[in-house]
Amino acid sequence: MKIFSITTDDKFKEYSEIGFQDEHPETILETWLENNPDKIIENGDLSIIGRQVTTNLGSVIDLLAIDRQGDSVVIELKRNRTPRETLAQALEYTSFIEKLGIEQLEDILRNYTSDEAANLAQYHREYFKLATDEAVVFNNDQRIVIVGQKITPEIRQTSSFLRNKGIKVTCLEFTFFKAEGGLRLLSTDIVVGNESNSIDRIISGSLPKISESKFLTALDSNGKRMFERLLKSAKDNSFPIHWGSKGFSLNVNLQGTHVAFCFGYPPQSVYQQSLYTALVGRGGLMIKIDISEEEIQELKAEAQNSGLFQPAGRELKLLITREFTEKEMDWLVSWLLKLSQTIEKHGLKGQSDQ
Question: Which segments of 32-183 are extended strands (E)?
Fold first, then answer.
């Protein structure tokens, strides 16, 4: 493919195609794909849930995603390997992913987002803005995406054969151009795909963690006022604050074990600018401390009756879309302190008699 600019005298001036690896480290293409998941496959958006995911055989998947239907998508960059090696590697990765259950996919998401209480179903629903009656089955099917500056005839032919046999394979070829003034252009073309047609622990890379200052900068005026108040209260009460790739969790330190009781997120998060409880989910009260279901429900009812929280799956969320009064923020801080005191009162599971 050739790309031209049109000069002031109506002449075509061709952009220079260059080898991508001549000017870029290998990982930059992963980052570009990671940040543009809607430009990868032929029929829809993707949500990236893992990067550099280690398989049971010790190999590493470049990117792992899920589509709107909940199917898993293995994204493999074609490096300096033979066509046979590229396809064999992609099939090996997919055979690994096929064995994973929702809990293991959720572990990958948690490692990737540095959010210890991330819920895959809720994350997926909010990312794709699904209707309340839109059902999803995770990892019911898998697909393969191979990305390279040159997709060889061997890869195209074999990928088309696999598609005809019911294995979803997409091949994305890209061309990199450089123009005067340092302008960079990237052209993509789906060369295969437009035609009709139980693992233990998972290790994966994670996004860089956000700092408190960057988090506060990302907030609007309502969010900044609310979160500054919450973070000050946390520091005053010596609550450990765990920063993730987007937001944070507030925790109680029980003999070195940190028990989360709420999570805060900025506007650009999938969860929007909000505060989520950790009453039931992993890392929270029900999982780590000796507390009854009845007491959890009492705490939950108290929060809902305040008018600040609304249901969010098994948890509650407080969307920060308006300015909250001092009285409302006082109540919220008081209720969160009550959660922390409940954690301290009950202690860790299995240690109440020690």
Answer: 46-54, 60-67, 72-77, 142-148, 168-178
Q: What is the pTM of this model?
A: 0.70
Give the residue-averaged pLDDT of 114-135. Answer: 88
Domain ranges of the chain: 4-205, 212-346
- Measured at the alpha carbon of residue 154, what is the angle toward residues 194 and 65, in degrees to the nearest 5? 50
Statement: 4-205 belongs to CATH 3.40.980.10: no
Q: Look at 117-121, 219-223, 235-239 and tell me which has the smallest mean pLDDT.
A: 117-121
The mean per-residue pLDDT over the stretch 140-155 comes to 90
**What is the sign of the dihedral through the CA atoms of 108, 38, 74 and 140?**
positive
Residues 212-346, CATH architecture = Alpha-Beta Complex (3.90)
Q: CB count, 10 Å around CB of 294?
A: 7
Burial (CB count <10 Å: 0-12, 13-18, 19+), residue 165 = exposed
Each as own residue / partner, the long-range contacts of residues 130-135 (CB below 8 Å, 24 or more positions apart, any chain) are 130/68
Residue 229 has pLDDT above 90, yes or no: yes
The whole-angstrom distance between residue 335's C-alpha and the CA centroid of its chain comes to 29
Tell me, what DSSP letter sits at residue 325? P
The Cα–Cα gap between 136 and 157 comes to 32
Rg (CA), the chain: 24
In this structure, which amino acid lies at residue 56? Answer: N
List the one residue out of 243, 248, 204, 254 whose CA is nearest residue 100: 204
Q: Which of 103-107, 288-292, 303-307 comes out lowest in average pLDDT?
A: 288-292
The answer to whether the Cα torsion of 265, 270, 274, 278 is positive or negative is negative
pLDDT (mean) for 186-203 = 67
Question: Residue 32, exposed/middle/buried by CB under 10 A (0-12, 13-18, 19+)?
Answer: middle
